[in-house]
Amino acid sequence: MATDVQVPALGESITEGTLAQWLKKPGEAVAADEPIASLETDKVSVEVPSPVAGVLSEQLVREGDEVAVGAVIARIDQNATASAAPQASPAQAAAASTTNPAGAGETPALRDDSEVEIADPDGPPQDATVQTLSPAVRRAVLEYHVDPTSIRGSGKDGRLTKDDVIAAAQRSPAQAGAQAPQAKTPAPSPETKAPPPGPRPSPGSTEERKEERVKMSRLRQTIARRLKEAQNTAAMLTTFNDVDMTAVIDARARYKDLFEKKHGIRLGFMGFFVKACALAAKDVPSVNASLEGDEIVYHDYLDVSVAVSAPKGLVVPVVRDADRMSFAEIEKTIAGYGKKAKEGTLTADEMAGGTFTISNGGVFGSLLSTPIINPPQSAVLGMHRIEERPVVKDGQIVARPMMYLALSYDHRLIDGREAVTFLVRVKEAIEDPTRLLIDL
Fold first, then answer.
1. pLDDT band at 147 (very low <50, low <70, confident <90, very high)
2. Is 415 noted as a catalytic residue in this protein?
3. Is residue 49 within a helix (H) or strand (E), and if so which, with residue range?
4. Among the options 33, 65, 257, 415, which is catalytic?
5. Higher model confidence: residue 325 or residue 100?
6. Could you tell me if 115 and 140 lie in one domain?
7. Scanning 252, 301, 308, 320, which has its CA 20 to 30 A from the CA of 150?
């Protein structure tokens, strides 16, 4: 008896997705509610669970195919027994035979089915588990020249992620920078003179130059479309300021141990900036507003979209009612979203809405940028890296930990005076955190 596996509901207004990766192969046993495939939508990645226990008998679509909600993508045979060596689907077998009929010269990282044996670091030395690499992981393995069998995966069920490959490459610089071996040039014989010194031929003239075409993921397509829409629609302008981080750094140093002991989370910078933006939005409500047709919608709450870097691109989960939250609640919420983003488990509901965005490019080393607003929001605050710079204090040149702030805003509903006032209020609150306590 075979049971159809259908694409589940993917969230409000999402009607289709892309089958990103098969997590099970035909012939493999699956438990009820065990994920058998991963779908990528405009906003999130969603795992497709098996509705029953049994054996995966058929895969009806290929990785990269577009699938609609409710479509049948696989069948589970409840009466079958798992095979010792799962067979690839006809589509996979045909693709493999076309690409490499002889199978010669394969390496675990380059095989078409991308199945490699990943050593289990917690098990006996000879134990290994078979794992299927996603397209993104395969590309990373090729790019960084690392052996996937030597890397411990941090994804679900120990699967390798792109971040795992990059981290392994960074731990082994020699391996990461290694190039394919080249034939050695024999030393000149005594009768042969060495060629005269001069410029060597460029690598492109002696080595094969390769290109790879990769289809944009649905998430990347959505990011590209929305950012371009923002540029085409909003009258965007950016204003800048800098902020002395001395007071915040001192406060963190003084209370970080007590804060972590009491709340179980580290005290970060984002809590200060979210609270500062909530305070500033009371004075300049248009920064927390949105434009709908010929009406400006003002919100009496602050739902902050926090830009988080995920393996598949930038995502913006929403910290709801941030103006009513404590420092600990803000930090816990953001940390939880960061973990989910890395694991690819953020839901569409967690990224829906938002009235204002904060983006911290400083974690990647950015000194200054002009962030793009996230429609229908009217403004976004860009944070940047902290570095010591000479400033004048009380007539003396001193070194201070400074950060540039950038506020991009929609000039259609926010005047320059309002934008500058908002940024100054944020600066004042960060340089004197007491203002956050007494609402000044």
1. confident
2. yes
3. strand 45-49
4. 415
5. 325
6. yes
7. 308
- DSSP sequence for 260-285: HHHHSS---HHHHHHHHHHHHHHH-G
The pLDDT of residue 132 is 61
Asked if 411 is an active-site residue, the reply is: yes
Number of domains in the chain: 3
Annotated catalytic residue, options 244, 411, 432, 439: 411
- Say if residue 249 is in the same domain as residue 126: no
Q: Which residue has the tokens 């996230």?
A: 374
Q: What is the pLDDT of residue 421?
A: 96
Q: Is residue 376 reached through a cis peptide bond, with omega within 30 degrees of 0 on the bond before it?
A: yes
Does 50 map to a domain?
yes
Give a yes or no: residue 318 inside a domain. Answer: yes
- Give the C-alpha separation, 47 to 45, whole Å: 7
Q: What is the extent of the structural domain holding 368?
A: 222-438
Please write the tens of the pLDDT for every residue from 362-384. 888 899 999 999 888 999 999 99
Tell me, what CATH number does 334's domain have?
Answer: 3.30.559.10
For residue 8, tell me if it sits in a domain: yes
Interval 290-303: pLDDT, tens: 988 889 999 999 99
Across the strands, what pairs with 295?
A: 292
